[in-house]
Amino acid sequence: MESIRIVEFFKNKSILVTGSTGFLAKIFVEKVLRVQPEVKKLFLLVRAGDAASANQRVQTEILEKDLFKVLKDKHGDGFHSFVTSKLFPLAGDIVQEDLGIHDSDLRRNLWKEVEVVVNVAATTNFDARYDLALGINVLGAKHILEFAKRCVRLEMLLHVSTAFVAGEQSGLILEKRFLMGETLKGDSYLDIEAELSLADKKKRELRAEDATEEAEKLAMKELGIKRAKLFGWPNTYVFTKAMGEMLLGHSRGDLPMVILRPTIITSVQSEPLPGWIEGTRTIDSVLIGYAKGTITCFFGDLDIIMDVVPGDMVVNAMMATMAAHAKQQAEFIYHMGSSVRSPVSYATLEHCGFRYFLANPRVRRDGSVIQTRRLPFIKSMVGFRVFMTLRYKLPLEVMHLVNLLSCGRLARGYNELNRKYKFMMYLVDLYKPYVYFDGCFDDLNMERLRMAMKKDDVEAKMFDFDPKHIDWEDYFSSIHIPGVMKYAFK
């Protein structure tokens, strides 16, 4: 692979970004503006009803974030004029054809101008409504591809997927593409059109039955999980992301395309703002639950390797793969993770979390300090279910009996506790595949790219995506956990 000039690649480029108000897209937009101020235009697709609403969302949900402080300090009073000349919000929706951009003149201008398309839009909820996940993760990918094909100057389509499209495979998982209709269970065949029709039919049936909004939501969530497990995936999110990849690979033609598959994305490690994060990432649910005192024990084997990667490294890899493969009429698959090159166990995170809360005790609303104790982890799933039965389920059954004998006096309390118990066990089933995940993601393609990057020391440092450079204990203790407490803990 020849040497790569990333900064030069983005000079004078017009780039269309979807999912632009999301965590990863914000980091990407900030990085491009900071390292290549001569980028021509960044068209930011925003789900909005009109241009004014799109502009407002970009202002409040992107530019006002702490992430952009370095850029603001760099430009000073000229920051507003600078971003106004570079960022162009677009009201639209990838669920719709033509990305929901209804102005035909605007569409034609985009098809003439756009040279790079970056698709970061996704619904990442494990148990998203099936119709919603199909719309964004599957049809959205299809609509992005159709739009990209009409861009006459297109050099690259980058699609961000997830490494966990591999499902619950174990061992070394290769960077290979999905074939159309491929499943993770035996010789079954996945008909994507049939899945779209099934979800639509189910929704129409529910509405014909006058199902409540909540009942419809629950039924569509359950349908997604059921269909995912039928074909070998653990949840709706990774199932629909796999389908999106299939559609892209099958219909790409000769379009230059990179599919980047990150593992679990965590807070910014280096720049522009170490520790910055939005939302609750997979591993942070336990940290936040522990900080709030709502989690008193958890399940999992602390010796298992967790595959995590900081958000800024993912963005650096995005930019490097785009520059490396622009105008190459092929499909390239990359894993972006740490399990092969820089493995870290859950025990490291647990240890760092314990040390952090010892030094930074949690405080109740009344001002009293919560004593910091190690969070007990129950290694086996069977053992955890036994614990939950003895600690919660049996007392609930006793409460139910007392409620019946007292003519329903405890009904409200029982129903609330029972709902919480069932919801927690539902979450346990959702997270179980990741807590006990026993695979590691081969990153040979990414390693070849790293080797090519070493030919330019300046860019190799500016766009570092080598997890070997991460001191995990320092990252978790000094950067990630403080970042979660500052930006995600409410």
From TrEMBL:
InterPro entries: FAR (IPR026055), FAR_C (IPR033640), FAR_NAD-bd (IPR013120), NAD(P)-bd_dom_sf (IPR036291). Residues 189-221 form a coiled coil. Its EC number is 1.2.1.84. The keyword Lipid biosynthesis applies. Signal peptide: none annotated. Keywords: Coiled coil, Lipid biosynthesis, Lipid metabolism, NADP, Oxidoreductase. Residues 392-490 form the Fatty acyl-CoA reductase C-terminal domain. Residues 17-318 form the Thioester reductase (TE) domain. One of its GO terms (biological process) is suberin biosynthetic process. The keyword Membrane does not apply. GO terms for molecular function: alcohol-forming long-chain fatty acyl-CoA reductase activity; alcohol-forming very long-chain fatty acyl-CoA reductase activity. It catalyses: a long-chain fatty acyl-CoA + 2 NADPH + 2 H(+) = a long-chain primary fatty alcohol + 2 NADP(+) + CoA. PANTHER family: FATTY ACYL-COA REDUCTASE 3, MALE STERILITY PROTEIN 2-RELATED. Belongs to the fatty acyl-CoA reductase family. Catalyzes the reduction of fatty acyl-CoA to fatty alcohols. This is Fatty acyl-CoA reductase. The lineage of its organism: Eukaryota, Viridiplantae, Streptophyta, Embryophyta, Tracheophyta.
